[in-house]
Write a structure and sequence with these properties.
2 domains, elongated, Rossmann fold, alpha/beta, single chain
Length: 408
């Protein structure tokens, strides 16, 4: 019997999502897959029967290695929310019909919370309809590090490495002029502060580190923030602050939303498009103290900076992709690959699979006991958790002085 598989990517890309794709591809080949198809733009593309034969693009081991070091989503992505079975049973019937027409035995979806919801819906439908000839497996991905159960997520280590390294450079730059200046750096993460927490990694024997870090796990008080700036300015001319894009006031209103001209855009999953937090706070500081301010948004750069990717992250992303394939070929379905940490020093972890129902739509946030100094910094325990994930460099293959990527 043929063993055809199909794999898709969904949600925001990362610098290592393609490493997971490479893991799925390579292990599937090794285990005897006949055809390895890739959905163009995730489940949305599949519904339009848009897919490729990945062997047309990945022809040898060097292509696999380049794919591992290529940022963004090679197959393209989507933010498409599957309707419920009750609302649109024909959507699920269509997906199963397409998969059977392609003779697919194993379906893999690489993504974050919303993507795991897709695996949950499809595997539940298959179970309810007694569909046993197709398995559905999730491969975790998100720089936000907010998936439940797993110790961390592929993509987070590389994004954290970029954040820590870039903040060190911003701090050096801020110290050039002997004038009062407040630099506020906005970091992604929505309602989970894992990425903003990585700002604490900048501090070391060669760097003073950022002065303040604000995470969405605690309510943001503007008056307290301005008081902190005033206190620090008595002993320092240059101040660097890291803020999560998703910080909210005590009423639950996003700081960027309060400052926005009009309502924020909302995607199909109900997520508001967060942006402008650093700009809003910079204006407040400038108006209050009359000093120079610089708002900086890392924006998409933090999720596509494969040139400073973590080797640990790249290798683990590849591993978790392969783990999903092995589990599916063993007959597992409705599961997600996860990391289990054994120790920090030395850093040891292993992989396993877990029921998608315990992971989909569950948001993991930074433990509040890790947030110290009146909500403005991270504990040593948090730093010890993050540091192993940023180790090693996955250097790109350089051609004519620039990284070589693989693309459709």
């Amino acid at each position: 019997m043929a063993k055809n598989i199909i794999v898709g990517q969904s949600g925001g890309p990362t610098s290592v999502i393609n490493s997971s794709l490479a893991g799925v591809f390579k292990i599937a080949k090794e285990l005897g897959a006949d055809k390895i198809y890739g959905m163009r733009n995730g489940i949305e593309g599949l519904l339009n029967e848009q897919y490729i034969d990945m062997t047309d693009y990945i022809k040898n081991d060097m292509d696999v290695e380049i794919l591992k070091r290529t940022p963004s989503a090679f197959l393209g992505s989507c933010r498409f929310k599957l309707p419920t079975v009750e609302k649109s049973p024909e959507t699920y019937d269509k997906i199963i019909a397409i998969l059977r027409k392609m003779d697919i035995q194993h379906f893999f979806y690489i993504g974050g919370n919303d993507s795991m919801d897709t695996i949950k819906q499809l595997s539940t439908y298959a179970k309810d309809k007694n569909i046993t000839d197709i398995t559905f497996m999730g491969v975790p991905k998100t720089i936000d590090n907010d998936l439940a159960v797993t110790d961390h997520t592929p993509g987070y280590g590389s994004a954290a490495k970029y954040i820590g390294a870039t903040l060190k450079e911003i701090i050096r730059d801020a110290l050039v002029q002997p004038i009062n200046i407040v630099t506020i750096v906005e970091i992604m993460g929505r309602n989970a502060g894992w990425l903003a927490a990585a700002a604490a990694l900048a501090k070391g024997d060669d760097c003073e580190g950022v002065d303040l870090i604000y995470l969405p796990e605690l309510a943001f008080d503007i008056d307290k923030f301005l008081t902190k700036i005033e206190e620090i300015s008595k002993t320092k001319k240059q101040i660097v602050v890291a803020v999560s894009e998703g910080i909210k006031d005590a009423n639950g209103t996003y700081i960027c939303e309060a400052a926005a001209q009009g309502e924020l855009m909302v995607d199909s999953f109900g997520h508001k498009a967060l942006s402008g937090t650093a700009t809003a706070l910079s204006r407040l500081v400038a108006n209050k103290f009359g000093c120079k301010t610089r708002p900086i948004e890392f924006s998409t750069i933090q999720r596509c900076a494969s040139h400073i990717g973590s080797l640990t992250d790249v290798n683990e992303a590849f591993l978790i992709g392969g783990q999903a394939v092995k589990a599916a070929f063993d007959g597992e379905t409705g599961k997600v690959g996860i990391y289990n940490r054994i120790s920090n020093k030395p850093y040891l972890m292993n992989t396993s699979i877990y029921d998608v129902n315990a992971i989909a739509n569950v948001e993991k946030t930074v433990p509040k006991e890790w947030i110290i100094n009146d909500g403005t910094y991270l504990s040593q325990e948090a730093i010890d958790y993050m540091k192993p994930l940023i180790q090693g460099e996955a250097l790109p293959y350089m051609v004519d002085g620039l990284p070589r990527h693989i693309k459709l």
